Amino acid sequence: MTSIDANRLLAMRASILEQNSALQRAANADLGNAGQMGGTDSAKSDFGDAFKSALTSVNAAQAQSSAASEAYERGETSDIAAVMLARQQASIGFEATLQVRNKLLSAYKDIMSMPV
């Protein structure tokens, strides 16, 4: 069994205390910034903005797909590959949005069924 060096042990203790105080300072700085930025309201608005942006882009893809299909039906374009690509992009975007909605509803149900 190895002997314990007191100097090394004190150095490790000092290092741990220094790291702990640095973490506490960082946590206090983050709390101060969170109070200035709105705290959890900022996180809520970030998620809401991201979700709204995703829905807007899916809606735009669907509108572009519809416009390309109508242009092809009117004979204004003959590029069927571009039309099918736009339709598939809109379809995949919608399916992904639907899956996110299903996961959010599932998480909400799980949280609501938790005992308090």
UniProtKB/TrEMBL annotation:
Q: Which InterPro entries match?
A: FliE
Main location class: other
Organism, by scientific name, is Allosphingosinicella indica
Name assigned to this protein: Flagellar hook-basal body complex protein FliE
Write the gene name: fliE
List GO molecular-function terms, semicolon-separated. Answer: cytoskeletal motor activity; structural molecule activity
Q: Which domain of life is it from?
A: Bacteria
Localization, per the record, is: Bacterial flagellum basal body
Establish whether keyword tRNA processing is in the entry.
Answer: no
Q: Which UniProt keywords apply?
A: Bacterial flagellum, Cell projection, Cilium, Flagellum
Q: Which family does it belong to?
A: Belongs to the FliE family.
Q: Name one GO biological process term.
A: bacterial-type flagellum-dependent cell motility
**GO cellular component labels:** bacterial-type flagellum basal body
